[in-house]
């Protein structure tokens, strides 16, 4: 999730994540998740999706006006949804 948030934040600020160590590490993580049996694919991709959503809101460039309330509420709601889904 943290890596996906970083990748989204880099893209929003005009940095190509594949030209950085984080982008390549994220790509390797995806390949290993799919290649090694026994690794939770849903957990990794669900975490990446949640991290990307939080990164999109929290790491938005200043030219995009996102209300401060959403910067606090989004991670809380994503976390609550993750807990709900894991218990359902």
Structural topology:
Elements: H1 2-12, H2 21-35, H3 41-58, H4 68-87
Helix pairs in contact: 1-2, 1-3, 3-4
Please estimate the helix content. Answer: over 70%
Runs in which pLDDT lies below 50 for 5 or more consecutive residues are none
| Strands, total number | 0
Order of helices and strands: HHHH
Radius of gyration: 14 Å
Count of discrete structural domains: 1
Keywords for this entry:
single chain, 88 residues, mainly alpha, 4 helices, 0% strand, flat
Summed up, what is this model?
The protein is mostly helical and 88 residues long. It has helices at 2-12, 21-35, 41-58, 68-87. The model has no long low-confidence stretch (mean pLDDT 88).
């Amino acid at each position: 999730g943290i890596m996906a948030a970083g990748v989204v934040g880099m893209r929003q600020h005009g940095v190509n994540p594949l030209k950085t160590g984080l982008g390549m590490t994220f790509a390797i993580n995806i390949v290993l998740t799919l290649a090694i049996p026994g690794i939770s694919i849903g957990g990794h991709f669900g975490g990446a999706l949640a991290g990307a959503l939080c990164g999109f809101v929290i790491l938005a460039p200043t030219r995009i006006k996102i209300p401060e309330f959403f910067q606090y509420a989004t991670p809380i709601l994503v976390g609550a949804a993750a807990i709900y889904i894991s218990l359902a």
